[in-house]
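yo

u said u wanted the structure for the complex thing, so here. seqs first:
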Amino acid sequence: MFLARRDMVFARGRFTLITAVVLLITLLIGLLSGLTGGLAQQNISAIQSLERDRIVLAAETYDESQLTQDQVDAWEDAEAVAAVREIGILRFQIDPADDAAAGSGATDGEADSGSAGLSAAIMGGTEDSPQRDGQVRLSASAAEDLGVTDGDTVTVLGMNLTVNVLDEDRWYAHTPVAYVTGSDWQEMETRLGRDDSVATALAIDLTDSADQAELDELATQTSTTVNGTVDSLMAISSFRSEIGSLLLMVGMLFGISALVVGAFFTVWTMQRTGDVAVLKALGASTRSLLTDALGQSLTVLAIGVGGGILLTTGLGLSIAGVLPFVVSWYTTALPAALLIILGLAGAAFALRSVTKADALTALGSAR
Amino acid sequence: MLSLTNITLTFPDGDSRITAVDDATLEVAGGSVAGLTGPSGSGKSSLLAVASTLVKPDSGTVSIAGVVATGLNQKESAQLRRETIGIIFQQSNLVPSLTAREQLLVMGEMDGKRSRRAARQREADELLDVVGLGSHRDARPAALSGGQRQRVNIARALMGSPSVLIVDEPTSALDRARSEEIIELIVDLTRDRGTATLLVTHDMELMPRFDTTHQMVDGRLSLMPATAAVGAGV
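structre next:
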């Protein structure tokens, strides 16, 4: 990179501009990726934590799904199924025990603006549920919002529950999750007048010999749907409506960044075409010129993308407690790698002019 | 030695072809300067392009220091130019971001010969001293005068001690005094280093300084007698 390094020092204003643009694009993509990840986590983290082979629902969405006993029995009896866990999800308000006498009056996730309560997704029957009835395990942020800690009492639908705070946050459809036992969940459903509802979903483990066709047939017979845990995420209405738009934005930003970086490199390479022609006339191989130019592009991308990701990480960590934002390998290292690859692709396209530069133009008065 | 034998070069012109060089034969011995003149469009630049292996002729043979260049592919031609041919351009064509010394080193660095870096740096410094720019080693082209840039152009062409020197109107952008200095420098270096130099110029007053003089008219090359070189106008 003999020529490339000196060119960068000589035209530092130009390279600072290109690098700054790459950095800002990276920052934009990083922030959007982190926000997308955060919003996604606020939709799906509770379902993701189920970690089973398949999820069975009685409707297209979790919110609409109410499995009957017959449906549950059919899946429990299936040969392909090794184990079944009945999962219940309902959305209601949780109140600290002090506010219980004031009466919350909330139904199905609609919070009464006048109370100190919290709209929560109450999940029963999961592995994170408490061991005994009369207890509730709250997400860390839910406990903080309610102003309760371990041992305090909260009330849901007239039921007093003793609080145990989880170390981490769990979310379902932008609602913090509270875990209760399966039977406490059933009691809540009964109090809501839904006596026939046995579970919202089934989290099942399959036998080694399980056949997908067999599962699909059973689903058809029982009027249910069966999907992997990841595929079932699209049954969360808010996630399905958000993720497509967000990923489209991120994808378009990647495309735009490739075009912008490619345009910069194209203009910069065109300005060097005369010098390239001279060096070719003097005997420089096309390969050495391309290596030098590509090394320059890689340097700009490494500094710009690296700086952008560092900024993203710093900003992300500082706002993660306030906004839904995830700082993880898939919101930092992965976008960084993609940006560098796309940037190099744009640079490689621009470098066609290096291969096409005619050494003959170095002779004569016109350059 | 530079040897061009029966060189013919044509270029497409619509449906027909233009003959830029028509059966030209020319030999330049080591340590001598062959001058080449002719009106604009006579084919001088085309002949230079063939001699420097930038263009393959339609027919004929180019031999440089005993190597038949006309049979080489693009990669081999580039290597031959790097190792055996020095080109002094009409415009100095210096890379704006490189200092005078780096202009001389860039080809070796691009070639990846890092093992001989110290030797190349010494050679570069010596050449800059020879052309009178020892105190301007770290100056970039913008800080040099036209004559100084042309001297760097000359020093760059001489890096690696080429066998052949192709010189394309080196004084076209210089005044009379500097033109004389540059030509004298090229002639002296040719003699000292034993290169075979082919020099194109419009300036007839410079012709007596060369060992042989040639004229091109409409693609045809002819040897000019010494007296004719002095008296001829173009």
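Residues 229-234 of chain B have pLDDT under 50 and may be disordered. The first strand of chain B starts at residue 2 and ends at 13.
cya
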